């Protein structure tokens, strides 16, 4: 059964309009328009190198677009946007608890708040482990806890389920759904189309730096008369799916 319930349409809390991003002479994003709703999980899907990380970093305000704009229309908050990088890394020499307390202190959280974030990702037992002694999956979970500290109105998660076991992958998507249920806009990327089909309220398909389709995954599926998000993805993506298209190299 579906975990997702489509929330009512609202004004976007974050709006990418006609966004371009170039690295030197190489165009990585071209004319990307993407409204991000509060109360919803918005998922970016697309082949390796299609521009998902670049777009997420632009949405998070970490990378300036070379054209177009990103507008935030959410509440004033100490931390507007939380971000999980694709490869989270923490300063060695500190425990998980100390690390999260540090991030909490930046937004005025008390000492216990970060631990609640750790509990949410199922990692409370690792609170006193050094961050440099965590497994890859555990590090990602600490990264998700870090991204939600200060309860930002927008949370941007770059491949939050990558490297997680099946149970934790599902749990991470449940957390995303829960956050959306409490009014947080969650934008994430993932290659797990089955999990996305269950949890995402909006999906945007990126191909070669452009959004080629977007909408409620059920609507998109129905419109294209296809029976799964995987089939939609395969239909939407152009070119050879066994070759990574490298912008500026492959024509
Ligand atoms: N700093 C940079 N300088 C030059 N090119 C870059 C830079 N960062 C990313 N790119 C290029 O931009 C393109 C898109 O990369 P991006 O990381 O956004 O893709 P992605 O869709 O997130 O890929 P994946 O699914 O593999 O994580 C790639 O061709 C990449 O080589």
Automatic annotation (TrEMBL):
Residues 14-233 form the ABC transporter domain. One of its GO terms (molecular function) is ATP binding. PANTHER family: ABC TRANSPORTER ATP-BINDING PROTEIN ALBC-RELATED (PTHR42939). It comes from the Archaea. It comes from Natrarchaeobius chitinivorans. Keywords: ATP-binding, Nucleotide-binding, Transport. Pfam families: ABC_tran. This is ABC transporter ATP-binding protein. The keyword ATP-binding applies.
């Amino acid at each position: 059964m579906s975990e997702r319930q489509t929330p009512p349409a609202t004004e976007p809390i974050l709006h990418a309009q006609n966004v371009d991003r170039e690295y030197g002479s190489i165009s990585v994003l071209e004319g990307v328009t993407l409204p991000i709703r509060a109360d919803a999980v918005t998922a970016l899907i697309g082949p390796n190198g299609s521009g998902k990380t670049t777009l997420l970093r632009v949405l998070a305000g970490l990378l300036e677009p070379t054209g177009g704009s990103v507008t935030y229309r959410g509440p004033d908050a100490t931390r507007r946007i939380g971000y999980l990088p694709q490869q989270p890394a923490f300063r060695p020499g500190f425990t998980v608890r100390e690390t999260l307390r540090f991030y909490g202190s930046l937004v005025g959280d008390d000492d216990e708040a970060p631990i609640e974030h750790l509990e949410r990702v199922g990692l409370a037992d690792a609170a006193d482990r050094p961050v440099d002694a965590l497994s890859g999956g555990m590090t990602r979970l600490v990264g998700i806890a870090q991204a939600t500290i200060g309860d930002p109105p927008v949370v941007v998660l770059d491949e939050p389920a990558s490297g997680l076991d099946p149970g934790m992958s599902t749990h991470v998507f449940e957390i995303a759904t829960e956050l959306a249920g409490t009014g947080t806009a969650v934008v994430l990327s993932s290659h797990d189309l089955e999990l996305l089909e269950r949890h995402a309220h909006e999906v945007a398909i990126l191909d070669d730096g452009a959004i080629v389709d977007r909408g409620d995954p059920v609507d998109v599926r129905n419109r294209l008369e296809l029976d799964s998000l995987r089939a939609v993805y395969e239909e939407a993506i152009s070119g050879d799916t066994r070759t990574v298209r490298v912008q500026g190299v492959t024509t």
